Amino acid sequence: MAGRPIDHEHRAALLDAAVDHATEQVFAELSWRSVAAALGVSTTTLVHHFGTKEQMLAAILDRLRERLIAGSRDLAGEHADLATTARAFWTWSADERRWPTLRLFFAVYGQALQSPDAHAGFLGQVGSDWTAALRAAQGPDVDPDLASRRATLVVATLRGLLLDLLASGDRARVEDAAEAYLASL
């Protein structure tokens, strides 16, 4: 006997709500019950739409990554160069409205590094989207190895600056460092 079909629109809405909930929680403490209660659904509903808890958490991480990439990519615009794209990523990410999402991102990143087998999908994708966008921003005439090296440096530097900003809250100092770095591009 086949189960009821998945309503993909409802699943997407549940997933977005689950990500919003996760940004306000300790990721390691997310459970079926806590997510179900926050979303106003039963745990059975979550099982129906996501399968296992691990699949739900993986879906939350994928949506989180999608949000981070989509939000920052839209700011750069089409045909932006490396400096413009990097600045757009920084501007979007350093906005205090993004801090709950970035806190979740870094919490998950740390957990994934401790349990790489459990979070292989997240680790495999964590920097590839931004890196790809930054490589593309350098244009087709730039040596691919050089473009990849530059993109990797930009991602690593901005990620480090964001982590410092979140940890210290010292916006003036970190923004000054970010501006100096971005101006050098």
From TrEMBL:
PROSITE patterns: HTH_TETR_2. Coiled coil: none annotated. Keywords: DNA-binding, Transcription, Transcription regulation. Residues 8-68 form the HTH tetR-type domain. InterPro entries: Homeodomain-like_sf (IPR009057), HTH-type_TetR-like_transc_reg (IPR050109), HTH_TetR (IPR001647), Tet_transcr_reg_TetR-rel_C_sf (IPR036271). Residues 31-50 bind DNA. This is TetR/AcrR family transcriptional regulator. It comes from Actinomycetospora flava.
